[in-house]
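S.,

Sequence below, as promised.
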Amino acid sequence: VWLVGALLLWGLVMVYSTTIGMPDNPKFARYSQLHFFNRHVMSLAIACAAGFIVYQIPMKLWERAAPYIFILAMVLLVLVLVPHIGVVVNRARRWINLGFMQFQPSEFAKFAITLYAANYMVRKIELRENFFKAVWPMATAVATIGVLLLSEPDMGAFVVIAVIAMSILFLGGVNARMFFLIGSVLLLTFFCMVAFNETRRERFFAFLNPFDAEYALGKGYQLTHALIALGRGELIGVGLGGSVEKMHWLPEAHTDFMLAVIGEEFGLIGVLTVLGLFFWMVKKMIFIGRQAIAMDRVFAGLVAQGIAIWIGFQMLINVAVNVGAMPTKGLTLPLMSYGGSAILLNLIAIAVVLRVDKENHQMKSGRSV
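The prediction came back faster than expected:
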């Protein structure tokens, strides 16, 4: 809880730091200086309340509800593609306008696939040596989600969801040969998605040489300014609020590229501190999951470990994008970046892990869960 609280509070400070100057840009002139900060505070309040409610729900109920939650996620992913329901931002249709916030179904899909994959492995555990009976139905479900996400398009979310599903299959005991076969198919799929899509192909070439004249003002623009921001930060940073790149040079500094601003204002020490907090939190989540599995609570354990992989892997992708180790993806830094849907689902997921931990302690003390 302390680790989560530290990341949330640091993220809140950074949302304020990265957005206070945005109204100087004509694009955001109608917003007040505290517009994004106030909305982020509201998102945190809603997410904390939702997390508190979710913490009260026993894991047995989540296990029974997992297939229905997965179906709901599929319905929402279809709805977001419907004109006048899905909201288009920067040529991507990824949000549904709820009035008080814009909800992103892909974030809910990450939570849904974690529950569904864990539930699936519990139900099919006796078939885990048979490829077609154990893996094919799950692969079909992930592929369906992939088609819907790529229609938005949101390749980053699809990569995260595919890794969550694969990891839970592996942790659930699927034969290692099957696991590597699935991994090979996914890698081939991702290669084809990049190779046969002009936008993704250009983004990949821009990632390889972002400072090239052909890409520096186009597909490589964000990456070049993220690298400049990290370079300016050096070891200890230029100080909180001192970032230059966030002042209309680095697009989406409050969402996808918050780590670059952290690097500029807090330096390498700040970036390593963020990584350390995430590493510690993910390690604790995996430990909670292992405890549950050791007590024969397989569903609860797989869910806790799946959530750890979700948050840890998305954090690694965001960091890799910011430092130029991966092509640009529209994935936020969990718990820290601006974004109501992401914060809401992150805290709901963490509340589920805390519930698993609570039930572990209840079993240790001899009480029923």
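The two ends are 21 Å apart (CA to CA).

Coffee later?
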